[in-house]
Batch of 2 targets.
Target 1
Amino acid sequence: MANHKSSIKRIRQTIVKTERNRFYRTRLKNIVKDVRSAIEAGNKEEATTTFKVANQQIHKFVSKGILKKETAARKISRLHKAVNAI
C-alpha cells in the first residue's frame, strides 16, 4: 500500500480515469458496431445517419483524450469507406 499522500491521491485519480476511459471505450465499440450492423444490413440511410453520429462522437473522444488523433482518423476513414461501398 502507498505510504505517501501524493501516491494515495495518484491511486484515487487513476481509478477515476480508468472508469471514465472504460465507459468511453465501450461507447466507442457500440457506436462502431451500430454502423457495421447497418452496413451489413445494406441499409444506406441508416448507415449514413449512424456514421454521422459516430463521426461526431469519435471526434469528441479525441478532444477528451480517449483516442489519439491518428486512431480516430483511421476508424472514421474505414467506416466512411464501408458506408460509401453500399
Target 2
Amino acid sequence: MNAYLIAGIVLILFLLILLFLLKKRFISSGRGNHLEKAAKNGRATEKQDTLLRSYFRGLSYILSNETDRALVEFIKVAQMSSDTSEIYLALGQLFRNTGEVDRAIRIHRNLLLRSSLPDDITLQTMFEIGLDYKKAGLIERAGRTFEELHEKFPTYVDALQELGGIYEMCREWDKAIKIQKKLAELSDNSDSDNILAHLTTEMAKEAEQAGKTSKAMTLYRQAISINKNCMDAWLHLGDLQLKKGKEQEAVNSWTKAFEINPDLAKLVVGRFSQLSPEKGKKRKDDFFQSCLDTYADNIHFIFCYINFLLDVNRTDEAADWIKRVMFTNPDAAEIFPVVARLVKSTESCKQYQPFLQEFFTIYKPPLKPYQCRQCGYQLDEVVWKCPKCAHWDTIGPR
C-alpha cells in the first residue's frame, strides 16, 4: 500500500476521533442563559468547521503528494487551535517515513520550542527527533538525544530500547549491557537474559581480538552463566579453548552448542576443520556417530553428515542418505549441492541414474538458505540478530 495512503488513513482516523472530542467539548451540559449558550455554541461551531476544513485540505494535499501545501494548511490549524501537537507529530513522522528527514527534524524542533508543552508531548517529540536523526544517519546526535531523553524520563522504555540499539550499532557493548539491565528492571521481557548473554559474548569477542584471552574466556563463561543456551558463546568458547590447546574441552563446548540448536549444525561441524586433517576427520566421525541416533530426523544435521561422507569418499552411504532426504524433504534448500557433489565424486553415475532423474524432476531451486522465524527476512548467512526486526536468535535454515 502507498505510504501516503497509509498516512492519510491514519490521519483520517485521528481526525474522526478529534471531531468526536470537539463535538463533545462544545455540547453544553449545565444550566444558564440559553441565548448566551447558543451564541457561544454558534461561534464554537463556526471555528470547528473552519478547523475541520483545514484538516481535510491538508489531508487531501498529503494524499496528492503536495506536502508543502499540506504543511500550510496544518499551520493554519495550529493558529486556530492550541490542541495541534499530535498533528505535528504525525506530519513529522510522515516526512521521516518518506525520506524528507530535514523537514521532519524542523517540524519536531519547532514543536519542542512551544511554551507549556505537556510532558507527554515533550517526551514524544524528543523521541521523534531521535528517530529523525537516526533515519538521517546522524547516529551520534540520535544517541545524545536518547541519552538526554533518558535523563529527563528515566523510565521511558522506548527511548531506552533505541539507545541500546545505537550502542550496539557503535559496538559500545558495556553501555548496551547497562541499558539492557535497566530495561530488564522496567519491563517484563522474557528475552532479557538472552540479549544480555549475546551482548556479553560480543564484548568477549572484542577482548579476544585485542589479545586479551583471559578476559575473553571470563566473559564467554559469564555469558553462559547469564543464559546457558547462548549458542554463540559456546561456539566461541570452544574456539578459544582450542587456541589454548584444550582440544577435548573445545569439542565439548561445540557439542553443547549443537545440542542447543541442531538446525545450525553446520556452524559446529565447520569448526572441526580447525583441527589437523587426521584429528578433524576422527573427531567428526565420533561426533556424527554419537549424535546420529538422536538427530537422524534433523534434516540440517543429516546434510552435514552427507557432506562428511562425501569428504571421506563413503559415496554409497552418502547416496543412501540423499535418497532418504528426497522422499522426506524434496524441497530442502541444501539438497542440490550434495547431489552435485555426489555426481562429481562418482566416476560412473549409472548406478544413481534412476534416482537422479527423479531428483531433477521434483527439484525446485531454493531461495536464500536462512530465514528469520519472527519476520520472514531471508539471508545468505547466519547472524544472531535479525537485521530487519532486531530479534535475537530467530535466524535459522529455511
